[in-house]
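Suppose you are handed only these lines of text.
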Amino acid sequence: MKISLDWLKEFVDIPWSAEEVAERLTMLGLETESIEKIQCTTDKVVVGQILKIEKHPQADKLTVCTVNVKSEELQIVCGAKNMKEGDLVPVAMIGAQLPNGLKIKKGKLRGIESFGMMCSTSELLISEESDGLWLLPDTFKVGDCVNNSFPIEDTLFEIGITPNRGDCLSHLGIAREIAAYLEKPLKLPSTDFKEEKESVDKKIKVKVEDTDCLRYTARVLEGVRLEVSPVKIQLRLNRCGIRPINNVVDITNYVLLELGQPLHAFDLTKIKSNQINIRSARAKEKLQTLDDKELTLDKESMVIADADKPIALAGVMGGKESEVNEKTTSLLLESAYFDPSRVRKMSRSKALISESSYRFERGVDIENVAFASKRAAKLLQDVAQAKILKGVVDVQPKKWTKKKIKLRFSRIPKILGCDIPEKKILSILNGLGIETKTKNKDGVEVEAPTHRHDLSLEIDLIEELVRFYGTDNVPTTHPEAEVRPIQAKPEQQTVARLNQAALGMGFNQVLNYSFMAKKDLIPHFIPASQFDQNSLALENPITEELKYMRPRLLPSLLRTAQYNLARDNKEIAIFESGSTYHPNSKGNGQTTERPSFTLLMSSKEPKVNWKENSLSADFYDIKGISLSLLNALNIFDLNMIPLKDSVYHPGQAGAWVSDKKEIAYVGQIHPLVLKHFSIEPPLFAVEIFLDLIPYKRERLNKLRPIPKFPKVSRDIALVLPNATSEQDVRDVFNQLKSNLLENVSLFDVYQGAQVPEGMKSLAYSLHYRSQDDTLTDELVEKEHQKICQVLKDKLGCEFRA
Amino acid sequence: MNPSIETLREEASKKIAAASALEELEQLRIDYLGKKGSVPALMQSLKDLPNEEKPLFGKSVNELKGEISSLLSDKKDELSASVLNEKLQDEKLDITLPGSRYLLGKKHPINKVMDEAIEIFKGLGFSLEEGPEIESEYYNFEALNIPDNHPARDMQDTLYLPTGSLLRTHTSPVQIRVMEKQKPPFSFIAAGKVYRHDADVTHSPMFHQIEGFLVDQKTTFADLKGILETFLNQLFHKKISTRFRPSFFPFTEPSAEVDISCVMCDAKGCRVCQNTGWLEILGCGMVHPEVLKSVNLDSEEWQGFAFGVGIERITMLKYGIADIRLFFENDARFLNQF
Ligand SMILES: [Zn+2]
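From them, the structure of the protein bound to zinc ion can be written out as follows.
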């Protein structure tokens, strides 16, 4: 909230500069977010009287005025229209600097000389906007500095008040903290006024039926003259962010900013039977609010009602019908205490937030209720000539009991790690109005003041102590840690290994939002017909684009790819680790989160390196990458089966199976999916579903001896039908029971003129070795022939020379 | 001394020294040492000599043979070396042409800073815990002393899922989950994604947090100051001044926000620190008795601190990043800078 330094000084003598005030408040937990200094050469802004207004000979929109500022008569060219001869206006003379930064110099406007400027309220930063000159009331004397009547200069602090400190939502509240810090007395504003003989009881009856109204006071004022507020009130309201309306409303707001107590003024004549009932609304009762909304009330709503109907939503907003207007002469002034959470519920359910509800929600001071009423009455008498009826109706259904808190001195060093001298403890508590009830050598028992709703536990008092003692005075120490092993959890290690492997292979890590647009999920990732049961939507998304929790990482990565390709970042080599989110298939509102890893790769960007020619990536590249990734997780027993997933190319995708689970998808992205993302094929992906992968430590195999004898190689080329997969061949090799065959490697795949149509040739190198001896040619030849025969029998293949 | 031996020695050493190619040298070898060469010829003449001269003559010819062999061999090494040298000269490359690189990938800056922070805390004895991102009202709010209908709820604009679950607004629910499952003392951090209904240049609807939690029988606010100072000094690789500004979080008390001396301007005052010389960096405090109560721990016996650090904020400060949205656009030109 905005706090005026000038206003604060009415409550407490402050010996500090504006910067020091800001620093102090900040270190007391009242974070000063900005300091705005309103400065003005006040001796050069004086009250002037317009003697003569003449048309500007060259410009229709300008006038030439003669203005008396007592010391001289000035000719001033002016663009405003709202003034007449005889009016009093603020005049900024040559050499003046205005709060908005404007410097006044002698000027010439369309050929006519001008010696100063007549000011509007906005130029003096009294209001944000203005139309025309500020016409001063006749209490101002020609030639006086305008600043004599009210201070133009001030410093405004924007202070962020945390939700626990409702008591600081006023100048009184802030001043109370400063006074406590300075150990100086707090000066309360005057409430002196003259009362009429007639008693208020005759004019108004108050009945509190709803117990969430803990105190209700009503005062009656008559003969009120509704008009514009005095400048000082307007200025302060404006600078603190409240628009002035009329003196009655302005004074209720002024007291709100001053003392933190929301007040409401009703037009007394609109209150049926002069009866006020504070009660729960009846079903379907309606209320037209001040801001022209029609509310339909319910029993959760607590209302201020007259004999017939609601006239205000308690603590939130007044009703239109009983609003003060230019015909109003008698007022009912309400000052009350409503239960914080009840007000919050009403304010939220009706989507109405007001200066009042904001303060009631955070808790106002129940003891301050009557004082604020008196203060407002005094101001209304001063400003609007109000006649105040004797006494006040003050209904308090239940006595407020102050909270008692025990503070053990021993707890202070136990929590803070340092002692605070007892004398200091007592003076801090006393300064904050926390009254010590009993005291012994071990501690004190205190009573929390009624404005401090945040004080109920011992720790709350310790917080107050450290706030005022200063966190800087608490030493910096190091906890005595116990030595114990810190080991990363298996899941954490899995993700770290995958990330490291992907980084090592040159892929960049990306981070996408966990939410995405429906259009990127339908139809490829979730079929339209199953969208509702298979998607997880936010109730209150930031935008439609960020509404659905992502069921897979892949669509986010495709968006990332598209974003980069659109910016001429041609090579896509990215990966992401993160959760995917799924509704429970039982439709019971439960959700699951699955840890996942996805990698996306395009062909290499051409023209990147003078030496590299082979740039196009293919399925086997991504297959190899996926294998390395899984190997990095110590997973070696892997088997690839064809993958049926509409996101992938039907002929170029596979699933890695390990331990009977499909733990990863690998393949080329389906061109139609890419088309949706405006990406040219091909693009390749690996998706690893980490929740299906058991954490595996490094394999602890015993070392195999390094062979002592040389190997012998024999190459063969098998001619097979295209439909035979390489896996079929490898299966045959794997099933061979040969002591000599050490290793088989595929070194060529050929289709073309050398083999018949519909056939392919797979060339393998077979390595033979014995652990006991150097192999002889005959022995190798014998074994090799045996193997060729098995291949021929099982695969029906021919051999190619 | 036999004059013919002497002549041959002189002639051979001259010719070998003059040889300029390996072929020429080979011819000289044949001429002198070959089967029909001059040295074997001299040896042949031994038989015509008187017996008493034979031993001396034979010894001299053998010596000559040895000398010529050695001259030939030295000269051969010399000529081979120069041949190789020529070949290597021919193979000269422009070593300034770019090499074929096997580029390492770049860790996302958020993960980079997060991993760094995790490492620092591991070194300080904190283990790493995790919790779900989709949370219940209970773990995200109630157990953390943020009752329903309390203005403290306004501090965190929440994204809701159907049936009342929500996206966690902070990593603090992990505190409760760990305390429910394990026995004190506790010292752990929790790191991960958190969510708020908020989006502008400095706020992202998704961001990352690290939560620190230490509860035992003696840890104090002074210890909290110590741990955080150590952490910040290590994270920014320099001595950082801090101030602990009293603040409010429902789940800690006393609570503080920690400001560090501005790393952009060395606390001289700049746009980033709004000329204050201070930057707000994290929130912390002593674990609130109500939080301990929610997991049935007695606050008379157990006490300690909790803190929460926004990773985006720190990363933005470390690298001078002004717009938080850059993190989630994943532009290669951005990622490649880390
Ligand atoms: Zn700075």
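What can we learn from it? The first helix of chain B runs from residue 3 to 18. The mean pLDDT of chain B is 92.
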